[in-house]
Every structure is written in C-alpha cells, then in structure tokens.
Amino acid sequence: MNPLLTVSNLSYSKKDKSWFGKQEHFRLAPVSFELKAGETMAIMGENGSGKSLLAKLLVGVARPSAGEILLNGESLHDKRQRFQAIRMIFQHSKESLNPALTLGSLLEEPLILNTDLDARERKRKIEETLKLVGMLPEHQYFYRHMLSEGQRQRVAVARALILNPQVLVADEPFAALDPSVRSQTVNLLMKLQRDLGLGFIFISHNLGIVRHISDRILVLEAGQLVESGKTDVIFNWPKSDYTRRLIHAYQALITRDE
C-alpha cells in the first residue's frame, strides 16, 4: 500500500531576538517519515523538542526551510490544498470557539472560504459532520456557553473534519480534559479513524495514551529525530538514552499512582 502522507527531509531554522536582546536560534533537523491511511503516528519529546513546531509545519501554519510534504504521492505546495487535506484539532476547545457565534456559523466559515457549496449544501454538510462526532443537528444553533466540556471537544473535532481531510494533526488534544471526557474523545477519534480511514498524527506528553492509540512513534530531542519505530518496539526496546528516560519517567509515575 502506498503511503498516505510522505514527509521528506522537512527542516526549519529561525533566529529570533529575545526580550534581553539575545539571539535565540531553534533548528529542526531534517525529519522524514511515512504515514499510511488508518495509521496513527505519535510524536514524543520533552518541552522544546520541536513537537509542536513539526505539527505547525505539517498543517501549513509555519513554513519549512527545506523538505517536501506529499499526499498520496503528490506535492502539497498550495497552502489552501494543504489546509483542506491536513487539519488540526485544537488543544483548548473552549478558547478556540468564538462565544458570539453559533456552532453552525463556526462550522460554516471554512466551507464558505474553501468550497463551492451553496447555503443548503453547507447546512447539510454541517448536520452530517455534527452527527459524525456524536452530536445532534440542533446543536448548530447552540453557542459555546451552552455546551459541556465533552461537547466542546467534539466541536473541535467537527471543525477539523468539516473539509473532509485525509490527515488529522492533534497537538496535546487531551491535556485540558478530565479523565472521563478524555476517554470519550480518544474512543471517538479511534472510531472516526476506523470509519473514515484517516491518518492521525498525535502529539502528547501522556505516554499511556500514546501507547494505547499509536502504531508508530517518532522521538524528538532539541529538534533532532533521535529514534523512530513501532510503538511496542519503542516502549519495550528503546535504543536511545533519551527515549529510555522518557519511558522510565512514565513507568515511575504509573508505579507511584498504584
């Protein structure tokens, strides 16, 4: 099977001035990987390792210094094309929803900007997408304050799905959720992946969830790709000292909680 997403030698380099006048330089060394339809790739690493930057490069929020992103073997040079094909699930669902707009208006905006659907077709697409994430068509008339935490997270997923993407990128999507909502959201995403054949790139500090949902893992340290492989292999036979430290810290936390 041909890969859904191919990332070849993707890199980033930028110098910024800090508040104290010093130059801060962050470099993401060339990263390459492939993602199949229906597969989940997790990206592990400490704060500042480059995980979130890699996510921004994939969805087009940041521009790489070099490298190429292919979808089904075709280059994604066009920013609009990438915006539709690779979509981001926002971490803080509440803050990402405009309190002055109904859910229908929030979901309609990307359809107006990126499709040729008329008003009736847009309404039908909104209702279909709400049903897809376990909500009712009537929820399109709700405002942010009328939703539970779990419903807001489902809306965040609906916004990512509304343009029929082939790849979803989620940067710490469960960090702010309580355990019950987190579990519901994980199950929802896994069901959507099975039903729609989505490729899923998942960034999280929660190694328990990483181990549960991912097929393969990339490990980043200070912008360097230090290790990659199947999830079970990474957790059971890590090659680098850095990966071993990450996994040991997770296992120590589990033992303490028990």
Provide structural commentary.
The chain has 258 residues and is of the alpha/beta class. The protein has one domain: P-loop containing nucleotide triphosphate hydrolases (Rossmann fold, 3-Layer(aba) Sandwich). Helix content is 40%, strand content 26%. The protein contains 9 helices and 10 strands. A 6-stranded mixed β-sheet has the order 6-7-8-3-9-10, sandwiched between helices. The longest helix has 18 residues, at 179-196. The model has no long low-confidence stretch (mean pLDDT 89).
Looking at the structure, what is the overall shape? globular
Instruction: Tell me what the CATH architecture is.
Output: 3-Layer(aba) Sandwich
Cα Rg:
19 Å
Strand portion, in percent?
A: 25-35%
N-to-C order of helices and strands: EEEHEEHEHHHEHEHEEHH
* Model regions low in confidence, pLDDT < 50 over at least 5 residues: none
Average pLDDT, rounded to a whole number, is 89
Give the helix/strand class. alpha/beta
Helix content: 25-40%
> What is the number of strand segments?
10
Helical stretch tally: 9
User: For this structure, what is the CATH class?
Assistant: Alpha Beta
Distance between the termini: 42 Å
At the fold tier of CATH, the topology name is Rossmann fold
**What is the H level of CATH, i.e. the homologous superfamily?**
P-loop containing nucleotide triphosphate hydrolases
Largest sheet: 6 strands, mixed
GO molecular function: ATP binding; ATP hydrolysis activity
Domain ABC transporter: 5-247
Keywords: ATP-binding, Nucleotide-binding, Transport
Protein name: ABC transporter ATP-binding protein
